[in-house]
Amino acid sequence: MRLFSYRKTWVVTACACLLGLAAGQALAESVTIERKFKPGAKHYVEESADITQKMPGGPAGPVETTMTQVVGMWEEVKKGEGDAVSVVMTFDRFSQKVNTPFMGTLAYDTDAPDAADASPMLKPVFDALMGQSFTLKVGPKDAIEGISGVDELQSDVSEKAGNSMVWAQIKQQFNADSLRQKWGESAMAMYPNRKIDVGETWTSKTREPYQFGTMITDYTFKLEKVTEREGNKVAVVTFTGKHSLEAPAEPPPGQVTPELSGESTGKAFYDIDAGLFVENESTANMEFLIGRPGMEEKSKMEAVAKSTLRYLSPSEREKQEKEASAKAKSNQEKKSEESKEKND
Predict the structure, then answer these.
(1) pLDDT tens, 120-138?
(2) Cβ atoms within 10 A of the Cβ of 330, count?
């Protein structure tokens, strides 16, 4: 997440204390929260997540899988037809580290492609996704009117990744419905597109394609306050979500849709001048009951996902790349020295 520094100068006088209290109060009682798409604007969007999954493991105890992942994209706004705008989304980073009791650790970061622990399973797929793009057509009131470029993306990645098992597993996440929902409709769900009073709530519903059907989330948002953060006027919004899973109308033969119950909580910061939620932190707790054809007994899987979505400037992104590359180089040199000492 982006770290913010709060600088305060303390002067021990009654006048200064009163001024300090006044400065910390809300700046306004209401604010219009809407996404402002400005042609020519270019941002770097980063979504990071830490996920832990637990399943019963029989006599050996629960089986735990952990995953840390980062997806980075450039978002460029261009003028479209009429009142619409075209938002070009270009993948710029994929990083993932998975720990499982069966396969050990798999890790790869496109910011550090030559790292000593680079996984040969992840590398060809993530490298093929780098630089791939698609375009969202956004109409009035943030309506997602269309998506293009997905067929070319899938075709190119399939050709470069070859018979990759990893690509076969995640390919569905990069089809038109999934990309439109994740980076378009779900991203717009936070914006009520109207004036909101401090303390007021609003709701929205998202439907995201999922491996076993459609994940439905009912959100409730609340404007907590309008204040300043790093010199910028921001609206602080908290939210809760309730998750469920809807079975497909025609499930594949032998597929049993799991039962899902889950809740999420989070906080987001809306930059009033930029017209953009610049940071969004959330924690989701979910429980799946997984059945098998012809069997009444179901297995329980628990999952906790902590995620952060934030917008970075081009200079912040450049600094991030250099730091990742330097860290990977340092680790590689350290491993090389350890190996040399061991052989000696």
Answers:
(1) 999 999 999 999 999 999 9
(2) 10
